[in-house]
Each structure stands twice: as C-alpha cells, then as structure tokens.
Amino acid sequence: MPSHINFVTTLFIFSVLIHLKALSPFSFQPSPPVGQATMATTTLRQAASATVDTISIVSTDLAKLARDLPSAYSDYVASNSSSVSTIESSLRSLTYLLPGARLHETEIASESVHTFVQLLSIYHDHVLKNRARILALSPTILKARNIKTQQPKPSLHSRYTMFWSSSSSLYTRIATLLKVAQYTELLWEMIARRRGGERTRWRVVVLLESLKAICRLLLLKITHSRPLVNPPLPLREDFAPVEAEASEEEFNQEHLRGDEFDVRTALGDAGVPTPPLSDSGKPSSLSTTEPYCMPRTGYTLPTLPTTDSVSAYLFNHVLTADDVKPAKQLLHRLSTLRGQAAETMYILRPVMYALLMQRMARTYGYEGNKWKRHWTPWLIGLSMEYFARQLAKQDLSSRSPVGSRNALSALERDEFKKRHWSLAWWGMRGAFYENITKKWIHGAASSLKGKPLLDLVGTVVEDYEYLWSSYYFSTSTM
C-alpha cells in the first residue's frame, strides 16, 4: 500500500512539472553562464547601494535644511525688521484695498490671507523682542553693529506692557492668546457660517467672546486689578532694533596731503575765515535751509537746526512725572468695589451683547433680517458700556478731591480716549445699523455710481457693507 501511494505521488508531481515547463515561455531558453549572472547581480547591488546612499544624503540635507530654516528665517527677520514691517503692511493693505475679493464666494480665502499675515506678525514680534532682549544684555554687539535698541524716550504704553511681559510669563501667554483670538475671530465666524449656518455661527461668536472675556479677567487679576490697556502687548516700534544711520564717509587723508593748502586763500588778512564772495564781489548771504558745499574739499556741510527742531528735540527729552514713575504705577489700582465693577462690566459687555443677539436670532429662527432690527440687544449693550464709563468716572472722582481729570495718569487718559472713540462703532452694529446707518450708506454709494473714480469708491463701500451687515466681528472693537 505505501509503495503504491509513493508511485502515484511521484507520477503526479512529474506530470505537474512537465505541464509547468510547457507553459513557461522561458522553459526552452538556455540558462546564462554563471559568471555573467554573478556580474549582473554585483552591478545591481552596487546600483542599489549607490541609490540608497544618494537618498540618505538627500534626506540628511533636507532634514538639516528643515532644522536650519526657522533659525535662518528668524535671523532674516531680526536683521531686516523695517523691510519685514513694510511687507506686512503692504499685504495687509492689499486685503483692505481689494474688498471685492473678500466677499461672497472668496471671502474665506481673502480673510485667511489677512489672518495669516496677522498671525505672522505675532511671530515676528516675538523674534524681534527676543533679539532686543539679547542686544540689551550685550552692549558690545550694539557697538559693533551700530544698532540702537529703541528710541531715547519710550512711550508709556511700551513701559507698562514691557514691565508686565517681562515680569510675568503668564501675562505674556494670556495676552498672546487674546491677540490670536482677535486676529482669527472673523475667519472662525465665516467658517462656522459656511459649514453650519447661522445657528453654528452664533455659537462660535458667543464662544469666542467668552474666551476673550476670560483672558481679560485673568489679565485684570494678574495686574492686581489695574485697568486693561489695548493692545495688551508692546507695539513693534517700541522694541524693534533700529539700524543707526550710516556714518559719513571718512576723511581721505591721502587726498588731503596731496592737496596744497594756502593760508591766504583760506584766511583773510585779519586771520579769520572769509565768507565766499558772489559774482559782484560782495559777501553772499549763506542759506540756512540748504547745505553748503566746501569749494576745496567738496564736502557738504549739513544745515543748522532751526529753532522749531531744537524745541521739538528738547521737548522729546524732557522728563515728566509719568516718565520717572515705576512702570507698575503708570496705571492706578482699582481699589474700590465701584472701580472693579466698572472694569468688569466693560469686559463682560461683549459677551452679554452676543448672547442677546443669539437669543433674538433664535427667536426668529435665524431667518431674514427682521430680528436684526430689534433695539433690545443694542440698547442693553450700549447701556452697559455707558454705565461702566460712568462708574469709572465716579471712582476717579472719589480718588482725587480735585476732579476725575486730574486723578488720571497720562496712560489712563490715552486708554479712556480710545474707549471713548470706540463708542462710535455702535453706529455700525445691530438695530442702529439696520434701521439708520445702512440706509445712509446705500444712499451715499448710489450717489457715487456712474462718476469717474468715485464709482470705484462706491463699489468698495457696497462691498464692505456686506461684511458689516453679515458678520458680527467685522465691527467688533474688543
């Protein structure tokens, strides 16, 4: 029995091999010599090894380039701060001057470009701030590169924000998060409206306003109940290194030795310098507004400063009471309950207004513009900001018996002036805009149509009217 099985198995295997050999297209080709096969194998191995080495070298170079790219870009930004600022301003202005590209179908793409430029400016500010800190600790580098870190007299806003940024890393992180939220809020609103409609859009608006309010409350806590400043971080011109002006061409000693010097030509009979003569032989009246070119050496002497420029220079270097104060004391603490309530109400006003607008939109089913014409959210929001302002004035009056105006520091006056002007934006929001401002804008844009150049202005106004009417954050000031 086993021998029979072995015979059948052998016969089956033999038949299969014959069948496969018949089907194979290379079954009758003679096999290559052993030497040629070995050489081909060696060549393939060498080619594969060279390819692997090349890929390894390229990947190493790319990885090194990827590692060095951030540092190289940071060095370029630090060395060319003025050029970078110019490029940022140009791109930012381009998105503003071409509003037609920001509307309807392409609004998200254009707003994305604008948001990217804004976020990139935050990174540039971070790079320049770090470089300014390094240069401040290395006076040798300043002298070698002929760089001055900042203006002779920094602004009060710069001193105050610099103090908190350097003394509290938490303040810097929260302030940066607040700026990022402000720069991206309109883009998030557009995306939410495109993806989820009006319901999702208002949820995102309330969420972003709540996030910004939390950041401001934390900043209020970190600064020990001091009023908030806008912006919460230093401006770029406050810390960006400024390249000093190129020094004048050094005096050529070789040229001076080769040039003959005649005392009688340079000095008169009395031994004093003789002013240049006019064609009539009389002394000419030298202009104090134009540079004077020396006739022998060819060098140009700069004009003397006028009395106005001297006065401006002196006023710029005069120290005031706020200049000698510690940076922490440039804003007074809100020590009373009234002052803290005023600042808290001012911070929570955008959240309350957004919640009221969301509720009104939900009541009317998020459809149409009828809900936008209701005055309740607009009146409550404006009233909260007005009462916060009045409470702050009463707190200042109680602080100083002379009056609230004299109790303010210079930085506080600047901040309250900004808040005062921001009240004008209430004319571009909610019911006031839908019932009053919108009609006036449409009338002004229509009157400009059909007129050369003015027609372009009317088109721009109509394009921006779409943003003001459709998006909450397009008129947000906080």
From TrEMBL:
Top-rank lineage group of the source organism: Eukaryota
Xref: InterPro entries: Pex16
Keyword annotations: Peroxisome, Peroxisome biogenesis, Signal
Keyword Signal: yes
Compartment list: Peroxisome membrane
Family, as annotated: Belongs to the peroxin-16 family.
Protein's name in the database: Peroxisomal membrane protein PEX16
Organism from which the protein derives: Exophiala mesophila
